[in-house]
Amino acid sequence: MSKSYTELLKDERWKWLSSTVKQRDNFTCQRCGSIENLEVHHTKYTSYLPWETPEQYLITLCYDCHKAAHYNDRSEKAAKWWEDIKKMAELYGTPIRLPLDTK
Ligand SMILES: [Zn+2]
Ligand SMILES: [Zn+2]
């Protein structure tokens, strides 16, 4: 009865919210500045429904940075990414934790 997370991401409400977030971030990856292959990442999950997450917990990332975020690897890129996320969290004044990995 419950939908998979991948299915939920196809929901119109998520499409609408993620395009709002990309617009807010000027269609630019907030980690590396890329403007290609942009995706919206949850820095914190407040609900299983992706569109119920407040905008301050969502950021625009390119595919590569997004992958680094989810795999939480120990590469230099991932380490820098994590530093940036922490800075951003301070800026927004929000607590952060690693996203759930839904592999
Ligand atoms: Zn993500
Ligand atoms: Zn990037």
Key features?
mainly alpha; two-stranded antiparallel ribbon; 4 helices; globular; disordered C terminus; binds zinc ion
Please give a structural write-up.
With 103 residues, this protein is mainly alpha-helical. The chain has one domain. The chain has four helices and two strands. It has a two-stranded antiparallel ribbon with strand order 1-2. The protein starts with a helix and ends in an 11-residue tail after the last helix. The site of one zinc ion has 8 residues, from strand 2 and helix 3.
Class computed from helices, strands and strand pairing? mainly alpha
How far apart, in Å, are the first and last alpha carbons?
20 Å
How helical, in percent, are the residues? 40-55%
* Average predicted confidence as pLDDT: 78
Widest sheet, order of strands = 1-2
H/E element sequence: HHEEHH
Largest sheet: 2 strands, antiparallel
The gross shape turns out to be globular
Number of domains: 1
The ligands bound in this entry are: zinc ion
* Gyration radius from CA atoms, angstroms: 13 Å
- Low-confidence stretches are 98-103
The number of helical runs is 4
Total DSSP E strands: 2
Strand content: 5-15%
Q: What secondary-structure arrangement, pairings included, does this model have?
A:
Elements lengths: L4 H4 L3 H13 L13 E5 L15 E5 H9 L4 H17 L11
Antiparallel strand pairs: 1-2
One zinc ion binds next to strand 2 and helix 3.
Give me a quick take on this structure.
By secondary structure, the protein is mainly α. The chain has one domain. A two-stranded antiparallel sheet has the order 1-2.
